[in-house]
TrEMBL record:
<dbReference type="InterPro" id="IPR036222">
    <property type="entry name" value="CAP_N_sf"/>
</dbReference>
<feature type="compositionally biased region" description="Pro residues">
    <location>
        <begin position="161"/>
        <end position="173"/>
    </location>
</feature>
<dbReference type="GO" id="GO:0005886">
    <property type="term" value="C:plasma membrane"/>
</dbReference>
<dbReference type="InterPro" id="IPR036223">
    <property type="entry name" value="CAP_C_sf"/>
</dbReference>
<dbReference type="GO" id="GO:0005737">
    <property type="term" value="C:cytoplasm"/>
</dbReference>
<dbReference type="InterPro" id="IPR017901">
    <property type="entry name" value="C-CAP_CF_C-like"/>
</dbReference>
<dbReference type="GO" id="GO:0007015">
    <property type="term" value="P:actin filament organization"/>
</dbReference>
<feature type="region of interest" description="Disordered">
    <location>
        <begin position="152"/>
        <end position="188"/>
    </location>
</feature>
<protein>
    <submittedName>
        <fullName>Adenylyl cyclase-associated protein 1-like</fullName>
    </submittedName>
</protein>
<dbReference type="GO" id="GO:0019933">
    <property type="term" value="P:cAMP-mediated signaling"/>
</dbReference>
<feature type="region of interest" description="Disordered">
    <location>
        <begin position="208"/>
        <end position="243"/>
    </location>
</feature>
<feature type="compositionally biased region" description="Polar residues">
    <location>
        <begin position="176"/>
        <end position="188"/>
    </location>
</feature>
<dbReference type="InterPro" id="IPR053950">
    <property type="entry name" value="CAP_N"/>
</dbReference>
<feature type="domain" description="C-CAP/cofactor C-like">
    <location>
        <begin position="249"/>
        <end position="383"/>
    </location>
</feature>
<dbReference type="GO" id="GO:0000902">
    <property type="term" value="P:cell morphogenesis"/>
</dbReference>
<dbReference type="GO" id="GO:0003779">
    <property type="term" value="F:actin binding"/>
</dbReference>
<dbReference type="Pfam" id="PF21938">
    <property type="entry name" value="CAP_N"/>
</dbReference>
C-alpha cells in the first residue's frame, strides 16, 4: 500500500506541475489528467478489502478511508474542507491503532502521528495556494498526463518531458522517509509551497460575473444555461448530483471465503446457512431487505445499506455497520464487538449470551441498544451522541452527556 500511495502522490505532483504551467484544459482532457490518480486511489481501497485478515487491517483502513483526499484537485470551491473531511474519516481507525499499540509499540503511535500530519500539511498548502480550487496558469503549454510513478527527473516513466514551469518545479516527494517533528512539517510545507514558486496564483483564477451566478440569476437554473463547468468530482466520493446509477443485478454467492450479498432490493427472507468459521459476509447496497446468517462465522460487514434487517447466530470476530441508514441487527448467539461507523439509525438487539458485547461507534446518530428483560421483553437504551470534555490538570476527560427532556 505504501508503494501505491507513493504512486498516487507522484501523479498528484505531476498534475500540480502541469497546472502551474498550463491553462485549464477542457473537461475531456481534465478527465484524462485525473484518471491515473483516481485509478490508484481505487487500487488503494481495493488493497484494503483484499487484506481484511491482515493484523495491520486498521492501518490499511485508515489509509483507505482518507486517500480520496487527493481528489481535492476536483473539489471547487472548498478543497481544503474536503481534505479535512477525509482526514476525519480515518480517525476511527487511527484511534484503533493507538488503542492497540499505545502501550505495546511506540512505532505505531509515531506512524499515526506522521500519517495524519500529511493531510494537515496538505490543508495548509491548499489554503495558501488553492483556496477555492486548483489554480491554473494563463500560460498555454502542452498537457502532460501521469502514466506512472514519477522518476527522479520529475516526469512520469514512459511520458514526454514536461515543459518548463514558471519557476523551478518541486523535487519528487520522498515517501520513504518519515516526517516526524518540526523537521517533517517544514519539509512537507516547503515541498507544497515550491510547486507554486514564482507564480502569482491569483492571476490564474477566473472571474465570474454576476449574470453567471445562479444565486443572482435564478433563470440559469431553469434554462440550464451557461453554467461554469468545472472538474468532475472523483467517483470514489461524489458530492455533486450525478446521473441516475444503472441498476445492478442482485448477488448472493460464496466467493472464496466471502459471502457476497449485493444490490438486494425488497428481498425479504435472504438466508445464508452453509457457513464455516473462516468465512465472512459482506452485504453491500442492500435496501429494504432482511438477511439471516446461520451458524458460526468469522465476521459480518454491512456497507451502504438502507432499511436492512440482519439476524445472525454467532460471530467470532466483529460485526461492522458502515455508511448505513436505518438498519437493525439482532444477535441470536454471541459476538465480541459491534462497530457502527458513519451510520444514521441503528438498532442492536442483544440476547442474554451477548450482553458482554462491546459496541464501538463513531460519526453516527440515532443508535439504540435493546437488551432483554426476564419476561422476554426488550428495554431500549440510546447510545450517547453528545459528549463533554474537560481538562483535569493533566489530561482531557470525556464523559457522555444526556439532554434533559
Amino acid at each position: 500500500m505504501a508503494e501505491l500511495m507513493k504512486q498516487a502522490f507522484s501523479c498528484q505532483r505531476q498534475l500540480l506541475v502541469t497546472a502551474s504551467s498550463s491553462q485549464k484544459p477542457s473537461d475531456s482532457v481534465l478527465t484524462s489528467l485525473l484518471a491515473p490518480m483516481s485509478k490508484v486511489i481505487q487500487e488503494v481501497q481495493s488493497f484494503r478489502e483484499k487484506n481484511r485478515s491482515s493484523p495491520l487491517f486498521n492501518h490499511l483502513s485508515a489509509v483507505s478511508e482518507s486517500v480520496p483526499a487527493l481528489g481535492w484537485v476536483a473539489m471547487a470551491p472548498k478543497p481544503g474542507p474536503y481534505v479535512k473531511e477525509m482526514q476525519d474519516a480515518a480517525m476511527f481507525y487511527t484511534n484503533r491503532v493507538l488503542k492497540d499499540y499505545k502501550e505495546k509499540d511506540k512505532m505505531h503511535v509515531e506512524w499515526v502521528s506522521t500519517y495524519v500530519s500529511i493531510w494537515t500539511e496538505l490543508q495548509a498548502y491548499i489554503k495558501q495556494h488553492h483556496t477555492t480550487g486548483l489554480s491554473w496558469s494563463k500560460t498555454v503549454s502542452d498537457i502532460l498526463v501521469c502514466s506512472g510513478p514519477v522518476a527522479s527527473g520529475g516526469a512520469p516513466s514512459g511520458g514526454a518531458p514536461a515543459p518548463p514551469p514558471p519557476g523551478p518545479p518541486p523535487p519528487p516527494m520522498n515517501l520513504d522517509k518519515s516526517s516526524s517533528g518540526d523537521s517533517g512539517a517544514t519539509s512537507h510545507n516547503a515541498l507544497f509551497a515550491s510547486i507554486n514558486k514564482g507564480a502569482d496564483i491569483t492571476k490564474g483564477l477566473k472571474h465570474v460575473s454576476d449574470d453567471q451566478k445562479t444565486h443572482k440569476n435564478p433563470t440559469l437554473k431553469v434554462q440550464g444555461g451557461p453554467l461554469p463547468s468545472g472538474p468532475k468530482p472523483f467517483a470514489a466520493r461524489p458530492t455533486a448530483a450525478a446521473s441516475p446509477a444503472r441498476t445492478l443485478p442482485p448477488v448472493l454467492e460464496l466467493d472464496g471465503k466471502k459471502w457476497k450479498v449485493e444490490n438486494q432490493e425488497g428481498a425479504h427472507g435472504l438466508v445464508i446457512s452453509d457457513t464455516e468459521l473462516k468465512q465472512v459476509v459482506y452485504a453491500f447496497k442492500c435496501n429494504n431487505s432482511t438477511l439471516q446468517v446461520k451458524g458460526k462465522i468469522n465476521s459480518i460487514i454491512l456497507d451502504n445499506c438502507k432499511k436492512l434487517g440482519l439476524v445472525f447466530d454467532d460471530v467470532v470476530g466483529i460485526v461492522e455497520v458502515i455508511n448505513c441508514k436505518d438498519v437493525k441487527v439482532q444477535v441470536m448467539g454471541k459476538v465480541p464487538t459491534i462497530s457502527i461507523n458513519k451510520t444514521d439509525g441503528c438498532h442492536v438487539y442483544l440476547n442474554k449470551d451477548s450482553l458482554s458485547c462491546e459496541i464501538i461507534s463513531a460519526k453516527s446518530s440515532e443508535m439504540n441498544v435493546l437488551v432483554p428483560n426476564k419476561d422476554g421483553e426488550y428495554t431500549e437504551i440510546p447510545v450517547p451522541e453528545q459528549f463533554k470534555t474537560v481538562w483535569d490538570g493533566s489530561k482531557l476527560v470525556t464523559t457522555a452527556t444526556e439532554i434533559a427532556g
